[in-house]
Design brief:
about 220 residues, alpha/beta, 7-stranded mixed β-sheet
């Protein structure tokens, strides 16, 4: 299945197999934690060298999600850039690609802990956004219903060994997986993530298809 249906705040959403969240009635596509410029930031700080393709790969995946859903509004839910320097040092080809994706639609950059402020790119720059009773922010809080990211949750289907990025959700909250390439992740069973989820929460694993698993079964 290419997506798992979600009911949040009385609205019908879709947790897509590619890790994006789609709200058909609003024509809204939401992604989190792109971490564009990650390889550049690690190299700048003297770390190991990663293949310099993560930004290109992430934008290609975002381009595909936009082509498939044709959204009127895109929300990038924080940590879109690996830091503010990386945001300011994007290659011209990346800036042109982003401009093409933004053309003809609303685009909202939500501030994250890696990019805590506006960047010199088109679109709106907000700490958080309220739409039809849903609050879009980077890090989960007790205020609900909300859509957040930040934790890069991952899980594996019981009986398998490979962990996949996943959504975590209950009746009041959705935490998105990281959409960016080479972003790593936090196990969905970690206390900090379980602590945000109510009894009956589920994980929706991404990949070739969206697979829903009770969080308690992981």
């Amino acid at each position: 299945m290419s997506h798992h249906p979600i009911k949040l705040g009385g609205h019908d959403l879709q947790a897509r197999a590619d890790g994006s969240l789609f709200w058909p009635a609003m024509g809204l596509l939401c992604v989190s934690d792109l971490h564009l410029g990650k390889s550049e930031r690690i190299a700048r700080r003297g770390g190991g060298l990663l293949p310099p393709y993560e930004t290109r790969e992430t934008l290609a995946r975002l381009d595909s999600a936009i082509s498939e859903t044709a959204p009127r509004h895109v929300i990038c839910l924080g940590d879109s850039f690996d830091d503010l320097h990386a945001a300011g040092d994007l290659p011209d080809a990346v800036r042109l690609h982003l401009s093409r994706l933004q053309a003809g639609r609303d685009w909202t950059w939500i501030e994250g802990n890696h990019d805590p402020g506006p960047v010199a790119l088109g679109g709106s720059h907000l700490a958080e956004l309220d739409l039809e009773g849903l609050r879009f922010r980077h890090i989960a809080t007790p205020d609900v219903p909300e859509v957040s990211g930040h934790f890069h949750p991952k899980a594996r289907v019981p009986g398998t060994t490979a962990a996949r990025p996943c959504f975590l959700m209950d009746q009041d909250r959705v935490i998105l997986p990281a959409f960016g390439a080479y972003t790593g992740g936090l196990r969905a069973t970690e206390p900090v993530l379980r602590g945000h989820m109510a009894p009956g929460a589920i994980a929706v694993l991404t990949g070739r298809r969206a697979v829903a698993v009770p969080l308690a079964a992981l």
